[in-house]
From TrEMBL:
Residues 276-288 have a biased composition (Acidic residues). Pfam families: Mn_catalase. Residues 223-288 are annotated as: Disordered. Belongs to the manganese catalase family. This is Manganese catalase family protein. The lineage of its organism: Archaea, Methanobacteriati, Methanobacteriota, Stenosarchaea group, Halobacteria. CDD domains: Mn_catalase (cd01051). It comes from the Archaea.
Length: 288
């Protein structure tokens, strides 16, 4: 069950409306670094958290609802950046309209054409939000690592937006969002710290079932063999404390060439026995 009132989580003011900046703000709503991603990510993670871990479920749901408030803030900022023109201009959706001309040149036309000068569920390029951005694996540790990455890129986006505007109202809003990203990064790290030994994820899988000779080997993919660069990830105790880092090369073996095609898939280019079957190709290569 969700509740809502009309008060913003944090005040949003725009001193100088800027349609181009409104386009940039769209990334904060529907981009892969945006608020829709984390709001839905935390909510679906909460849905998959069992009763035995209720405190984590409650925390995830609370943070998800906070992120929905951030979507509302971004949408409000977009509207205020777009609606600063006189109403007489906004009402004239016709050729030569200066507001639409400005948006066609530097902004997001769909913010006018599809949303009536308001925010959209898209990124800054107008690409619709994609639910595949959402990571909710059912493994709490895996989800926490995903959340740290989401908050890191979200904070990076907000800092870049902060540097793109001179509007003090927008800087104030973004400074608040940046601060919340700082908290959320620390929050997810705190969960991992409390969970204890989580590496490698999933920690519940018995490591003796994997090929342990490769478990802590940094694998060079250069064609020629090279000496161990003696970096932190090629020597010394592994981060999980369960092994020693080493430096090696791809073991090799087998072939990537498909032995035969599945007849029902109709992948053959010619009729059976034609000049281009595998045997004919082998004969031609041998004779050339």
């Amino acid at each position: 069950m969700f509740y809502h009132d009309n008060e913003l989580q944090y005040e949003v003011e725009v001193e100088e409306p800027d349609p181009q900046f409104a386009k940039m703000l769209q990334e904060g709503i529907g981009g892969i670094e945006g608020e829709m991603r984390v709001a839905l990510q935390y909510m679906f993670q909460a849905f998959g958290t069992p009763k035995s871990k209720a405190k984590y479920r409650n925390m995830l749901m609370s943070t998800a609802m906070e992120e929905f408030g951030h979507i509302e803030m971004y949408a409000t900022a977009i509207s205020k950046n777009l609606e600063g023109a006189p109403q007489s201009i906004i009402d004239e959706i016709a050729d030569g309209n200066p507001l639409i001309s400005m948006m066609m040149e530097s902004g997001q036309p769909r913010q006018a054409l599809s949303a009536g000068l308001h925010g959209l569920a898209t990124d800054a390029n107008g690409v619709p939000f994609n639910g595949n951005y959402v990571i909710a694996s059912g493994n709490l540790a895996a989800d926490m690592y995903a959340n740290i990455a989401a908050e890191a890129t979200g904070r990076l986006l907000a800092t870049r937006l902060y540097e793109m505007t001179d509007d003090e109202g927008m800087k104030d809003m973004l400074a608040y969002l940046i601060a919340r990203d700082t908290m959320h990064q620390n929050q997810w790290h705190a969960v991992l710290e409390e969970l204890g030994e989580t590496l490698p994820v999933p920690a519940s899988f018995p490591q003796e079932k994997e090929h342990e000779e490769y478990s802590y080997q940094f694998m060079s993919t250069f064609r020629e063999q090279r000496e161990d660069p003696q970096e932190r990830w090629t020597q010394g105790t592994s981060i999980d404390g369960e092994g020693e880092f080493s430096y090696g090369f791809q073991p090799g073996g087998g072939t990537a060439i498909v032995e035969e095609v599945i007849e029902e898939m109709h992948n053959e280019a010619t009729k059976a026995g034609g000049a281009n079957d595998d045997e004919s190709i082998d004969d031609q290569s041998e004779s050339s």
